[in-house]
Amino acid sequence: MFKKILLIITMLYAAAAFAAVDVNKATAAELDGIKGIGPGISTRILDERKNGNFKDWSDFIARVGGVGEKTAAKFSAEGLTVNGKKFSQTAAARSDAKNAKGDKVEKATGKKADKDAKTATAAATTPASAPAAAASATKK
Predict the structure, then answer these.
(1) pTM for the structure as a whole
(2) Closest CA to 82 of 100, 96, 64
(3) Domain range holding 52?
């Protein structure tokens, strides 16, 4: 009988140790309970969470300083989740690729705007009388 009770208590502790802690709902104490998260990181997480819940792991990594993909993978292995999901490098890579594509479009648009600005500046600095003078010189 004593062995059964001891076994049940041990199983309850094991289940509690592997319980998922959602970053959007956790208290500072719950975050500190994750191996690798100390008071500094838990404070940064809670401060960023005041600006809004984390959408996914890539949002979490981008907003919380000092957390990269390797650290996120470790936190996830220890039971941390974002919106109930464990860290997945493929999901993070897709999100990063999506962000990089947006950056490329922005850079391309910026280059076109720079070229248009140079063309407009060149047209504005050309004297208006120059084409007329060139035209009258060819008539003579």
Answers:
(1) 0.55
(2) 64
(3) 2-89
